[in-house]
Write a structure and sequence with these properties.
Blueprint: H1 11-14, H2 19-30, E1 34-39, H3 47-52, E2 54-62, E3 66-74, H4 85-96, E4 103-107, H5 112-123, E5 130-134, E6 146-149, E7 162-166, H6 174-180, E8 184-188, H7 199-210, E9 213-217, H8 230-236, H9 244-251
Parallel strand pairs: 1-9, 4-7, 4-8, 5-6, 5-7, 8-9
Antiparallel strand pairs: 1-2, 2-3
Helix pairs in contact: 2-4, 4-5, 7-8
């Protein structure tokens, strides 16, 4: 079983995980490597609130009860962990399934190089094996990452062990992503997929669905309505979340209106 692979996490990473992070990694592995990992909105408002508690939400589907949300309260959480919590846990999970590398990471444009730095720091793989797709290739690259331009006239080759792209690039290279058949996909800030009409959503979902392991990360998976979760859950469990209408009726108090002509 996948959960038995927990011991494959490098000691340098596992020893740095806090108790709630270990629980989160185990949860993802126990659920087949497909999960949405999120923390509650508002955790960054005050230092006092952060130090007193941190909420880790792990969302998964359970056939007997529908949408299951498991909540764990974490005391004495430190502010310095917030930017790295999700990256750290996702990297830990990825380290458990090395046999299924290469890995595709889809993230907002501003976080691409941050992801590259985190991977290099914690997995100790050659920087040249970390490929980052940027719109412009100018500027300093002291870390030695493989930089590819999304505006290149020729074909883009995603041949890194870790391939990091932005949501805006996905529609441009969807055919390449589908042909590459990535078995491990991490979608950071997955609330970018909540709009069913957006090009990035329609282009990203087939890539995530096709992956054997998919980890979605977001601190705000649904800002105001449960319907905002649907596309993210569909990406994880397409055989379960087939109909937005059924989902709306069950979780959003959907009401059908009939009009007589």
């Amino acid at each position: 079983m996948l959960e038995d692979q927990y011991d494959r996490i490098p000691r340098c990473i596992e020893s740095k995980l806090l108790a709630f992070q270990r629980e989160g990694v185990r949860f993802i592995l126990q659920h087949g490597g497909r999960a949405l990992l999120a923390d509650e909105m508002g955790l960054g408002k005050t230092l006092q609130a952060i130090n007193s508690s941190c909420l880790l939400f792990l969302v998964d589907y359970n056939a007997s009860i529908g949408l299951e949300i498991i909540c764990k309260t974490i005391p004495n959480f430190s502010l310095r962990w917030i930017p790295y919590t999700f990256c750290f846990q996702a990297i830990a999970v990825a380290s458990c399934v090395r046999d299924c590398w290469p890995v595709l990471i889809i993230t907002p444009s501003s976080l691409r190089l941050q992801w590259a730095s985190m991977i290099q720091q914690w997995l100790s793989i050659p920087s040249s094996d970390i490929l980052v797709v940027l719109s412009q290739c100018g500027g300093s690259n002291k870390s030695g990452f493989t930089i590819v331009s999304s505006n290149a006239k020729g074909t883009i080759h995603l041949d890194g062990l870790f391939n990091i792209i932005s949501y805006d690039v996905v529609p441009k290279i969807q055919n390449l992503l589908m042909a590459s058949e990535f078995k491990v996909v991490i979608a950071d800030e997955s609330h970018f997929l909540k709009n069913a009409q957006a090009k990035r959503t329609s282009a990203s979902l087939p890539v995530i669905k096709r992956a054997q392991y998919a980890i979605l990360l977001s601190g705000t998976p649904a800002l105001s309505r449960p319907i905002e979760l649907f596309k993210q859950l569909e990406a994880l469990y397409p055989d379960v979340y087939k109909s937005v209408h059924e989902y709306g009726n069950r979780y959003c108090k959907g009401v059908s209106h009939y009009f007589l002509s």
